[in-house]
What does this fold into?
Amino acid sequence: MSSHENQWFGFEIPGQRFSLPLSSISSIFHLGDREQIGWLEDRLEVYEGVPVFLVAPHKLFNFNQSTALLNDMNLPLTWAIILKNNDDAHIGFRASKTYGPFESDINHDGTVQCSNLSIPVIDLVEMT
It folds into this structure.
């Protein structure tokens, strides 16, 4: 991630709030009131005729050991965030809430500001 990034997109996954550089996101869409599916399950969705593989966040991000993700089936995961990658695959994850896009400089503690929220920046794992 470049330290020159200043456009961000924030999201919540059960138990945590994170942000990514806007440049790493291909698209974002609202899943609506579909059946509730556990966010730990990988699932193929179709959005506007395009297949999208939604995977569990621990497969996409470098979480530190103190990060506690909750598998709360009562929390609606109504957003899909699709990541940019170098091939034709459309890979993303589910989120319960989104913030932005917004502009912010990265703070010394690795967070960005969205209104009154200080949101940690998360690094993507290398996708192969």
